[in-house]
Amino acid sequence: MTAQNPPDQLVALGRAIARPPVVAGVAQHSPMAGLERRTVGFVDVLAQSIGAVAPAAGTATVPALIAAQAGSGLLVAVAAAWLLAICVAATLNQFALRIAAPGSLYTFTSKGLGSGPGFAAASGLLVGYGFIAMFGVVGAAYFLQSFVGVLAGPTAAAPWVTAVLLVGVGAVCFGVLRRGIRLSARVTLVIELTSLVVILALLAIVLSRLDAAQLAAPFTHPLPSIGGLVAGTAVALTAFVGFESAASLGREAARPFLTVPRTIRWTVLGVGAVYLLSAYTQLAGAGAFGIGFDGGQAVARLASDTDVAAVGTVLDLGLAASFTACAIASLTALARAVFSLGREGVLPRAMSRIEPLRKTPYRALALVVPVTVAVPLVLHAIGWSPWQSLEFLIVVSAAGYITAYVLATAALPAFLRRIGESSRRTDLVAGVAAVGLAGVLITYLVVMVPGEPVAVAVVGGLATLAALAYVYVRRTRSRGLARVGLFDHTTSSDLLGGS
Amino acid sequence: MSQAGRDPGLTGRQPGAVHGALSVLEEVARVGPGVTAQQISAALGLPRATTYRLLNLLVQDEYLVRLPDLAGFALGRKVALLAGLAVQATPEGVHDILLEVRRRVRGGVHLASYREGVLELVDVDPDFPLSDERRLLSDLTSSALGRLLLAERRGAPVPYVAVPNGPMPGHGCFAAAIRDPHGALVAGLALALPTQRLGDPEALLELTAADRPRLATALC
Fold this sequence. Notes:
The structure holds two protein chains of two kinds. In chain A, 73% of the residues lie in helices and 0% in strands. Chain A has helices at 11-18, 42-53, 55-70, 74-96, 104-113, 115-152, 159-178, 181-208, 212-220, 226-238, 256-289, 298-305, 309-344, 362-381, 386-418, 424-451, 453-476, 478-482. The longest helix of chain A is centred in the N-terminal third of the chain and has 38 residues, at 115-152. Chain A is globular, with a radius of gyration of 23 Å. By secondary structure, chain B is of the alpha+beta class. Chain B contains nine helices and eight strands. Chain B has helices at residues 16-31, 37-44, 48-60, 83-86, 94-104, 133-138, 144-153, 201-207, 211-219, and strands spanning 35-36, 64-66, 72-75, 108-113, 120-123, 160-163, 171-179, 185-194. Chain B has a five-stranded antiparallel sheet, sandwiched between helices. In chain B, strands 1-3-2 form a three-stranded antiparallel sheet. Chains A and B meet through α1 of A and α1, α2, α3 and α4 of B.
């Protein structure tokens, strides 16, 4: 019997429907019980990933950061990062097709490589989501302040305003997150799409004012050195991180094995296209108008130079919203990772408490949101400018994220072999992704030493802290460590004839 | 078997995928919970990549579920929607014979198969729905059709079983064995009747005496 010769009578199937078989080893409850199950629709899952990537904020700020490394190789760097992100997405999707887990990448890692690497991936994920959430809070406050400045004049530039805005953004995030996943996802999507439309319109305006020679200019630049390109690729990759965060809604998503992989695929493809267009426009526009990439407001300045200053002001508001969305989405994923670690017993069990009515992990939120506001406040207090903070936060976050990516992609071949579903193609793609990412991570940290020595030192410090935490957890919470890898498995109600 | 059957490029969008998906579901049902992707691929002679893709599609649509070990598969809740597809087509001729019997008998006339020693309903009288089909299939002692099979399993075959008091008050059922030429039990013809008409089972046996050999032939 083959696919071309179907059974004309589904005898066994008919019998199974009439008398569903007893299935051993399927429990009535999932270890992730408490969070809503299988209710969040595709659009909301998509919103989670798009929000975490925050393409609007990324489009406006990251090309400047990439150009600092890759110079005129900006386009090549963005394209290379896009390709790498596609490989990572394809690899992570092999997990997402099979496992629904609030712990997302660290749970995946533990399924292939065991609890030690799983713990390392969890540390990377917490740092990645945590610092990107802080990045979102700082960015939102920064652009809000810039917007308020236009309305209220120089008073708005006072340091206390920054502090108030930081706390305010944090409070908004907490309120939205506590209300439940659907509200936060919807808010995120609306914000993100609106700001993206504004930015795309702006890019179109800029492009429409360029002549043919200026439009061709970005392709005639000589390529920079390989080192610069790799560094640029590494920075460009940071603009993609977050696309995988839909996986943290594994339990909450309706039809998770369909919606989560689809979200991850679409997000990477769509976001990459927008980045390429944006990088190209900024390169062509900057050449034409003689503007350098600095201060992270290249898009706004391009707008001002094309006599659409008003749009630039609206853009501030849009970017503030986009950064807020980024914070909300990152906190969503972060809270679920903390929740999952609590359920396993790696973190205190209290972290896995769920608010019964809203079904949100409120204890985890009550831990992570204050920390996310406190760190930016400290940076502000020691006199760092918002832009300085943003650059610092993104470096630490990227190191955390990419560490988790490397571990999860490296875990895939072992996982597929264990369940007897390995193939040469998935092994190859996972290998390319893991090796590429490891190279990017190392290059990135090395390249960042001169510009961001504090960030690289903090990454080293956090890695040491994670290693110490591992030793501590192994001593005092070994049972929790042994439980790493819990996920939202099939329950008896999912089975034919189940209840 | 066309070449396409071995083509690893088969995607979920191609028409062959529907056949493949049904074959995979049937195989999971046949082998039972816990069957792995490798076993399914080997049993169906499907390329492994195609098997994985079909399995993942069926899991996405919740016709299949992965067991907690992540390697084994079981039928999902949604398979119940395929009940119409999976009901065995009644063999040619059987339905006509049953129509004749139903015209003659003032009561419910149901046909069950005992193929492979399992009770399966082949044709239920549309005018007299079963009171509890689930119980009839799961508890063999609850019905005349089930007791007929139980007697056979115990090695003490009987020509008929009468149950004067069924789940519906004042009603019961009678089931007569249908045997192939070698005497093996292949099916059961059940009559659902008011209790007072079940007093003379020999007469009921006689009532369908001519029909049962014809049904045996039509069923084989």
